[in-house]
Amino acid sequence: MDIRRLNYLHLLYLRTVIREGSVRQAAETLNVTPQTISGQLRQLERELGIRLLQRRGRGVGPTEDGRLVMGYADRIFRLGEELLEQLGRGPGMPHFRIGINALLPRLLVRRVLHPLLSTQPAPRLVCREGGHESLLRELTARRIDAVLSSDRAPAGLSPPVSARELMASPLAAFARGDLAHDHRPDFPASLDGAPLLLPSPGGAARSILDDWFATRGISPRIIGEFDDAALREVFGEAGAGIFFAPAMIREDLCRRHEIECIGELPDLTARVFLLT
Predict the structure, then answer these.
(1) Which of these three, 166, 194, 216, is where a domain ends?
(2) With 70 as the cut, is the pLDDT of residue 141 above it?
(3) Going by C-beta distance under 8 Å and a sequence separation of 6 or more, which residues neighbour residue 170?
(4) Domain containing 18 — which CATH number?
(5) Tens-place pLDDT, residues 42-84
(6) Given a cut of 50, is residue 176 above it in pLDDT?
(7) What is the Cα 245 distance to its own chain's centre?
(8) Is residue 205 located within the same domain as residue 223?
(9) Does residue 84 belong to any structural domain of this protein?
């Protein structure tokens, strides 16, 4: 393939479809028609000579080749964001570089950041997604201005990092209709032996669940562990298992992914911190 025929817009469509889990959701996010995205992605597959997407339940996910292309696309867009950031520096063009912990649900991030867009003058948001530790390195190196995370910063960082709690919400359990229906009776005891989609070990989002399972004597069947909340939601929508998210985004989450809330866990709290 001639490098001159590699289209930045095609990569944007692919990246958004994989992140959103469906062409329809990607079209809503990008404000284009699903037919536009489908046609452009077919053209990209023809140019590359590979399949990039495959069916997963009611949505789509990347093939092995699709995951490879997605990794390069992420790097390309990260460089593009850095370019725009450098060009945008200067008087009269405020910008706010913020790191987003990938474990945070996108709907929750949108709720936290949306008020910034109504300020005058509205800053240009430069959002970078990653793991908690990698984002802290970016923050202490002053390559970003702040981090949104479910974890506080450890003591002893140089320069010191402060944490301000922005939101707190009880956790709730979500699943596709048939799975939700089966586990709603006797909830939360019904989680014992249930198929679960959990955050990866090592962070606050996982440790509070593990501690709660232990105190309740619940032994779930862990189907998958994820560094990315959006990917966890996609697998949940496909019926792979039950996942947890803040109850405060329940209505938007159920409408977006065609899933149901099994029940709330009022003694478990999801928190969002602004680290600066």
Answers:
(1) 166
(2) yes
(3) 246, 247, 264, 265, 266, 268, 269, 270
(4) 1.10.10.10
(5) 888 888 888 888 888 778 888 888 888 888 888 777 776 665 5
(6) yes
(7) 11
(8) yes
(9) no
Residues 185, 255, single domain; the answer is yes
How would residue 91 be classed by pLDDT, with cut points 50, 70 and 90? very low
Dist. CA 15–CA 83, nearest whole Å: 19
Are 179 and 258 in a shared domain?
Answer: yes
Which long-range contacts link 248-255 to residues 24+ away (Cβ below 8 Å)?
Answer: 248/108, 248/111, 248/167, 248/169, 249/105, 249/107, 249/108, 249/111, 249/169, 250/172, 250/174, 252/107, 253/105, 253/107, 253/174, 254/174
Give the residue carrying structure tokens 């606050």: 204
Place of tokens 């789509």: 60
Among 151, 166, 181, the domain boundary falls at 166
Q: Are both 62 and 129 inside the same structural domain? A: no
Which pTM value belongs to this model? 0.65
Q: How many domains does the chain have?
A: 3
Residue 175 sits in the same domain as residue 251: yes
Instruction: Indicate if 212 and 249 belong to the same structural domain.
Output: yes
- Examine the pLDDT at 90 and tell me if it is beyond 50: no
Is the Cα dihedral 118, 120, 124, 127 positive or negative? negative
Quote the domain boundaries for residue 141: 91-166
